[in-house]
Specification:
The complex is a heterodimer. Chain A is α+β, with helices and mostly antiparallel strands. Chain A is 48% helix and 12% strand. In chain A, the strands form three sheets. Chain A has a three-stranded antiparallel sheet. A three-stranded antiparallel sheet of chain A has the order 6-7-8. Classes of the chains: A alpha+beta, B alpha+beta.
């Protein structure tokens, strides 16, 4: 009997135990947006990953070439609905650089306030997504509730919740509305207290911490080689923030700390990347408070919008700023007319998502949503 | 390091009361959330307050509008088209028609209206059953309760004013940017005078040329001109351009 089994066992040893490709997306509840993640799995473990983007490509960069400079600003809002303010800010900043003008002090501080409100609401949107990815619906609801207050601030400032269309070439669309400083300080103070409820829910619960801790380590060298930027990079121990290291628009006149974890320890897992974003929200609150004080000190009748020529002189310009998700870059090639010859956008997510292969290396399938939630996906700006 | 959150976390959960800590936290939060007001509103019956400058659908003051087409030119999605309608006296006039289905709610039409005829309105419930119903004609665009805040004004500070130590002066770009004629290029075709919506251009004879024919040149009445750039766009020889005051 044993003799008859020998050929069967031999065949079993030679049996094909190849790895299997599993495809997540493009329409999957876990993926935030339309993108595909191909995962090569060996049982429960992931050995290879391959992100595929491009389902949302709509020719954004080409379309800008047929519009005059002022009419591109509403389009920049549509790159990412969470970071609409920073993208319009970046575009206006780049064109101002090309024109060689210096915008009024008040406009700079208003832009800082608007940017930081945008950063907080973007991070809260991310926190809500993390909550649902880890199976905590309470975090989702509470984060969305807090986000509503910041969207209300957007409405008071510029009349729209998400597609703000607020910065203009040469300043901002309108002055701060009456009582805006009171409203924003109330909101920020309220948020600083209310945020702790959400933190207690996640950080004091060993369920969520143990799901995030110790998986998907990224080293500083990997971050540099793969082009990871933003809070995800700072969570891996790289101490770099454009707001501090290459300051734009009066960011050098406000005091804030760039959150980065202790470099001596081994950092760079999913939980570290989570913690950086939470701390960034508190730092943004500090920046808002200082900037509102500065706006009040400048006075009511100070200029907030300069008149700029419609035609931009020929040349190339490079602008960059710290987006909620990473480092956004716009590269403008102008040819002396009222339309750009080329406008290139460097989206932080496009490079961050290419790190998903390094992030997913060796983790289990069940951890994939927890790991990829830290990228804070936004496909509108990735595919453009 | 003045860190709010990173100073307290991460905590070593093994050293803390491992399972008791979450239980205490959840119990605390449970009692905290027992008593608070609802954060949502009963939507169709109650509505959120919106400020004056809230960007809902565009509104139009029919009598103020002159049909210059600045809104259609600035519209980012080409949702605005000028159509011919009868005004109160029975004359044919051009007025904007907005396709709400295309509208991006950016507020540019209100901002760039030289006469503040186009406004933003707080109306946001715009669902219709057919696509045709989404077309808002000039009469339908009317909004009764227009306030001053809805007329978004494009007020800028001139860089020259800032340099001269007068930074508090605000000007509207439609008051200062006026068309300018390049006399050598002009052929006197009168197209600019025909396209002007406020009849600010009159054609006048300025002597005769070598062949004995009259030289006709446009003359601008800057008090009437609203800087709508229609004459600049219609000029076949590019003889006109807006002179930007900076």
């Amino acid at each position: 009997m044993t003799d008859s089994l020998v050929p069967v066992l031999e065949a079993q040893e030679k049996m094909d135990t190849d790895k299997m490709w599993v495809i997540w997306g493009p329409q999957h509840p876990f993926s935030h947006g339309l993108w595909t993640l191909k995962l090569k799995i060996d049982g429960e473990f992931i050995v290879d990953a391959d992100p595929i983007v491009g389902y949302l490509h709509r020719g954004w960069e080409k379309e800008t070439e047929n519009r005059d400079y002022a009419r591109i600003i509403p389009m920049t809002d549509r790159l990412c609905y969470c970071a609409s303010m920073t993208y319009s800010h970046l575009y206006c900043m780049t064109v101002e650089k090309a024109l060689g003008i210096d915008i009024p002090e008040k406009a700079k501080y208003i832009r800082i306030v608007a940017d930081e409100v945008c950063r907080i609401q973007s991070h809260l949107m991310w926190l809500a997504a993390v909550g649902t990815d880890l199976g905590n619906l309470t975090v989702f609801l509470w984060a969305m509730r807090e986000r509503e207050y910041f969207l209300d601030l957007n409405v008071k400032l510029c009349g729209a919740r998400m597609t703000t269309n607020y910065p203009r070439i040469g300043g901002v669309r309108n002055d701060t509305t009456p009582l805006f400083d009171r409203d924003i300080l109330r909101t920020v103070e309220r948020f600083e207290k209310a945020m702790w409820d959400i933190i207690y829910l996640i950080d004091d619960s060993s369920v969520f911490v143990s799901r995030m801790k110790g998986i998907s380590y990224m080293t500083r060298e990997q971050c540099a080689n793969l082009g990871l930027t933003g809070p995800a990079m700072r969570g891996c121990g790289v101490d770099f923030d454009i707001r501090r290291d290459d300051p734009y628009d009066n960011y050098d006149k406000v005091n804030f700390e760039v959150p980065v974890l202790n470099k001596e320890k081994k950092v760079g897992d999913t939980y570290d990347r989570y913690m950086i974003r939470i701390e960034e929200m508190f730092q943004s609150c500090d920046i808002i408070k200082q900037a509102v004080q500065k706006i009040n000190a400048i006075g009511k009748n100070a200029p907030y919008r300069l008149k700029t020529p419609t035609k931009v002189p020929a040349g190339t310009t490079f602008g960059r700023l710290e987006d909620p998700r990473g480092e956004s870059i716009m590269y403008l090639v102008s040819d002396g007319t009222d339309k750009p010859w080329r406008l290139k956008v460097r989206s932080p997510i496009f490079t961050n998502v290419s790190c998903s292969k390094a992030m997913c290396d060796g983790i289990r399938i069940a951890d994939v949503p927890a790991v990829l939630a830290q990228i804070d996906m936004c496909l509108g700006e990735t595919d453009r | 390091m003045a860190w709010t959150y990173l100073d307290k976390y991460p905590k070593n959960l093994a050293k803390s009361l491992w399972i008791m800590k979450p239980v205490i936290t959840v119990t605390k939060l449970f009692f905290k959330t027992m008593v608070h007001r609802p954060v949502t509103v009963l939507y169709p019956y109650e509505k959120e307050w919106v400020p004056d400058n809230y960007r809902g659908r565009p509104g139009l003051d029919f009598d103020k509008c002159v049909g210059c087409g600045m809104c259609a030119r600035m519209c980012v999605t080409q949702a605005i088209k000028l159509i011919e309608v009868d005004d109160d006296n029975g004359n044919k006039v051009m007025r904007p028609q907005v396709n709400i289905g295309r509208c991006a709610f950016c507020g540019y039409c209100a901002e760039y209206c030289p006469l503040d005829a186009m406004t933003v309105t707080p109306e946001y419930e715009l669902a219709e059953y057919t696509r045709y119903d989404l077309l808002y004609g000039p009469r339908r665009l009317k909004y009764d309760k227009t306030t001053e805040g809805m007329k978004v004004k494009l007020e800028v500070t001139l860089p020259s004013d800032v340099a001269n130590g007068n930074p508090e002066r605000r000007v509207c770009i439609f008051d200062i940017d006026k068309p300018e004629l390049n006399d050598a290029k002009c052929i006197g075709c009168k197209k600019c005078a025909k396209s002007c919506p406020v009849s600010a251009i009159t054609m006048v004879e300025k002597g005769v040329n070598d062949k004995g024919k009259p030289i006709i040149r446009p003359e601008f009445d800057n008090s009437k001109c609203i800087s709508c750039k229609n004459c600049v766009d219609d000029c076949p020889k590019d003889a006109l351009q807006i002179k930007e005051v900076l």
